[in-house]
Amino acid sequence: MRLSLMLRELEAKIVCGEQDPDVSALVYDSRKVTEGACFVCIKGAKFDGHDAAFDCVKNGAKVIVAEREIEEVKASGATLVIVNDTRYALAFMSAAWFGHPASKLTTIGITGTKGKTTTTCLVKNVLEHAGRKVGLIGTIETIIGDEHIPAKNTTPESYILQETFAKMVEAGLDSVVMEVSSQALMQHRCQGFVYDIGVFTNLSPDHIGPDEHSSLDEYIDCKAMLFKQCKVGIANLDDEHFDRIVSGHTCSLETFGLSEKCDLRATDINLVKTAGRLGVTFKTGGSLKMDVEILAPGRFSVYNALCAIAICRHFDISKEDIQEALLKTQVKGRIEKVKVSDGYTVLIDYAHNAMALESILKTLKEYDPGRLICLFGCGGNRAKSRRFEMGEVSGHLADFTIITSDNPRFEEPLDIIADIKTGISKTDGKYIEIPDRKEAIRYALKNAKHGDIIVLAGKGHEDYQEIKGVKYPMDERVLISEIIKEENL
User: Fold this and answer.
1) Which helix (H) or strand (E) holds 413?
2) Do residues 56 and 187 share a domain?
3) What does pTM read for this prediction?
C-alpha cells in the first residue's frame, strides 16, 4: 500500500526519504519488522519504540513513523514521518491498511466501570436471536462466528482491532458489539472510525494508579471521549458522573435508567426467587414499553438489561425477540448460576475487589437467603489493601466466609490468606480457611443447607490458576462437576 493512502486522514510531515513509497507491512512491534515495512514507534510503559527505530531500518523497514526526528534514521535514507501522536496515527493507518472495515459493520462500543461484559453479551444474544450476524470483542474473548479467541486486553491495540473488524467482514458478519476501556480511549486504540452507537453504563473509582490513570478526573475524561466518537450516544442518566461524561458530546444523545427523566426507564422492579434460580422482572417505559424478565439478580442486572434494550431498539427487532433473548442469556463468570441442587443456589462471579464484592453480596442479601456463603481469595503481587478490604466486606455482609486461594502468582497462598484474615478480623464474621480451592468448594457444597446462596467470587470466567509464573488449568465449573460426581451430590 502507498504511504500516502495510509496518511490520508492524518497531519504528518515527511522529513526525509522517498515521499510516497509502497509499503509491504504495517508494524508497531520492532521484533516483527520485515523487508519494506512501515514501523510505527509506540512509547509504552516499559519500552519506547523510538529507541528501536534505527534497528528496524537495518532489519528492512522502509518507513519510520515517529513523534520526533531520529538522526540515525535520517542518515540512513529511509523515509521518516513525524506525527503528533504515534498511537493516534497507528489507529488511522491501521484502518486504512485493512480497508476501513468498520464502515462495513454496524459498530457498538460500550464503556463504563461495571456492566460492559454483561451488556455486550446481552446485546449480541438479542441481535443474533433476531437474525443478525454479530461479532464480539471484550474482556473474556473475541468472537468471530464460531471462532472464540481468548482476550489479552479488554480492548485490543488499534492494529489488532482493525484486523479483527476485517476478519468479521470476511466472515460475513454485519455488526460488532465491543467493550471500550478507558485505557483504550486514552491510547486512541479506537480511533480511525466512528461508532454507530456509543454507550456509557456507569462509573466509579477504578483503574487509578501507576500505568493506568493518574486521577479520577482523567478516568472520567477518558470515558467521555467515546461520546465525541459516535453517531448515537446512549448514557445512564442515573449515574452521578453523567453530566461530565456527556459534556461536549458530538452525537445525538439518549438516556436510560430508573429516573422519570430517562428516555427509556425501568419501573415495577420485582425480585424473583425460585428453586435454585434468582432473577428479576420489570417493565420499561418511555421510548419502548414492554415486560422483561431476566435470570440474573439485582438492580444492576436491571441496568444491564435496560441498557441492552436501549441499544437493540435501534434495530428492527420485535419486543418478543428482545424478551426471549434476555430471558435465555447467561454470561460466563458474571453472576453465573451453576445447577447443583434445587435446595440452594451456587453462583460464580468475577468480583475481585472490595467494591465489586460488596455490590454482589448486598444484592444477594436482598433475596433473603437462608445463609449467604462467600468463597474467595485474592491475587498475589497486588495491593495488600485489596485483601484487607475484601476480608472486611465479606465479614460484614456474608453469614459465612470460606477463605481460599485465587491466583497466588509469586506469593505464598497462606501469606495472602493471612492478609485477608486481617481484614475479616475487624468484623464478627464467621469464617474458615481452606487454601486448596477445589477443597474449599467441596466444603461449601457438602455443608450447604436449604435456602443457602453460595457465591464463588474472584475467578469468574477464568479457567486457570496462576502459580509461580505458570497457568494451571482450573475451571470452577469443572471443579463443581467433579465434586458432584465424587460426593454423589
Assistant:
1) helix 413-424
2) no
3) 0.92
If asked whether residues 80 and 121 sit together in one domain, one would say no
Alpha-helical runs (H) found in 194-318: 216-224, 242-246, 299-312
SS3 assignment, position 278:
strand
Q: Say which residue the cell 438479542 belongs to.
A: 126
Take residue 262 and report the three cell numbers written for it: 430517562
pLDDT tens digit sequence for 427-472? 999 999 999 999 999 999 999 999 999 999 999 999 999 999 999 9
CB 357 within 8 A of CB 390: yes
The rounded distance, in Å, linking the Cα atoms of 146 and 132 is 14
Number of domains composing the chain: 3
CB 457 within 8 A of CB 352: yes
CATH code for the domain in which residue 162 is found: 3.40.1190.10
Q: What is the dihedral of CA 397, 399, 404, 409, to 10 degrees?
A: -10
What phi and psi values does residue 24 have, to the nearest 5 degrees?
Answer: -90, -25
Q: So what's the pLDDT on residue 209? A: 56
> Which of 163, 138, 159 has its CA nearest to residue 149?
138
Cα separation, 224 vs 202, whole angstroms? 11
Could you give the 3-state DSSP secondary structure of residue 175?
strand
Looking at the structure, tell me whether residues 477 and 436 fall in a common domain. yes
* Same domain (yes/no): 242, 309: yes
Residue with cell 460426581: 485
**Whole-angstrom distance, CA of residue 23 vs CA of residue 26:** 8
Residues 348 and 303 in one domain: no
Distance between the two ends of the chain, CA-based, in angstroms?
A: 62
3-state SS, residue 478: helix
Residues 317, 348 within the same domain: no
Among residues 328, 355, 390, which one ends one of the domains? 328
Dihedral sign, Cα of residue 169, residue 173, residue 177, residue 178: negative
123 and 212 in a single domain? The answer is yes
Report pLDDT for 400.
Answer: 98
CB 191 within 8 A of CB 92: yes
CA distance 480 to 190: 39
The range of the structural domain enclosing residue 85 comes to 3-97
* Amino acid of residue 90: L
For residue 72, how many other CB atoms are within 10 A of its CB? 13
Whole-angstrom distance, CA of residue 237 vs CA of residue 216:
19
Q: Identify whether residues 89 and 138 lie together within a single domain.
A: no
CATH number at residue 429: 3.90.190.20
Hey, which residues does 130 pair with through a beta bridge? none
**Domain harbouring 46, CATH code:** 3.40.1390.10
* Domain stop point among 69, 97, 125: 97
**How far, in whole angstroms, is CA 415 from its chain's centroid?**
29
- Look up residue 21 and give its three cell numbers: 513509497
What's the pLDDT score for residue 321? Answer: 96
